[in-house]
């Protein structure tokens, strides 16, 4: 039995005449809105926070960061340039690969990350409290969707 379609302020996900790819697109827009609202006043956009969150854990090469976030090189380059211009990110030579460099947060970037992280965690708690299923179950489903998307992309590329 299909899940009941839900409408929130004119957007409908799960309708009989829709499809899962359009539903995912609509959900992605809503996620961006929620994260942008969470980060209001920090000067950081949702996509930039994704960069911050990964670099807050460890210095990464641009290739590693792009792979983790699933972004194109050009999209990632735009975020990195913006963060670097604002003094929140720096690049240093890679100690083991002279052709590459590592991306790191500056001291100001780490302070900004902490400010954003507190807001993000509070928003995540509110969001998770609104889920009808345990967050772990939702993440399993998202993993299935992500893997199906990757396989579909691979099939279409061949």
Would you report the number of β strands?
Answer: 4
Arrangement of strands in the largest sheet: 1-2
The sequence of SSEs as H and E is: EEHHHHEEHH
Strand residue content: 5-15%
Shape from CA axes? Answer: globular
Tell me roughly what share of residues is in helical segments: 55-70%
Helix and strand arrangement:
Blueprint: E1 6-8, E2 11-13, H1 20-38, H2 46-57, H3 62-69, H4 73-85, E3 89-93, E4 101-105, H5 107-130, H6 135-157
Antiparallel strand pairs: 1-2, 3-4
Helix pairs in contact: 2-5
Give a written overview of the molecule:
The longest helix is centred in the C-terminal third of the chain and has 24 residues, at 107-130. Helix 2 crosses helix 5. 63% of the residues lie in helices and 10% in strands. It is globular, with a radius of gyration of 18 Å. With 158 residues, the protein is mainly alpha-helical.
Write out key terms for the chains shown.
single chain, 158 residues, mainly alpha, two-stranded antiparallel ribbon, 63% helix
């Amino acid at each position: 039995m299909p899940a009941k379609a839900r409408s929130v302020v004119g957007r409908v996900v799960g309708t009989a005449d829709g499809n899962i790819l359009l539903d995912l697109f609509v959900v992605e827009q809503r996620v961006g809105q929620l994260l942008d609202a969470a980060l209001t006043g920090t000067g950081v956009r949702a996509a930039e926070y994704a960069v911050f969150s990964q670099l807050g854990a460890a210095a990464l090469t641009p290739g590693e960061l792009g792979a983790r976030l699933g972004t194109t090189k050009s999209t990632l380059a735009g975020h990195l340039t913006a963060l670097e211009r604002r003094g929140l990110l720096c690049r240093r030579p890679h100690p083991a690969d002279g052709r590459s460099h590592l991306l790191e947060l500056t001291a100001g970037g780490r302070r900004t990350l902490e400010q954003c992280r507190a807001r993000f965690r509070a928003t995540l708690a509110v969001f998770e409290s609104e889920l009808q299923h345990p967050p772990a179950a939702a993440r399993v489903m998202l993993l299935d969707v992500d893997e199906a998307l990757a396989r579909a992309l691979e099939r279409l590329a061949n």
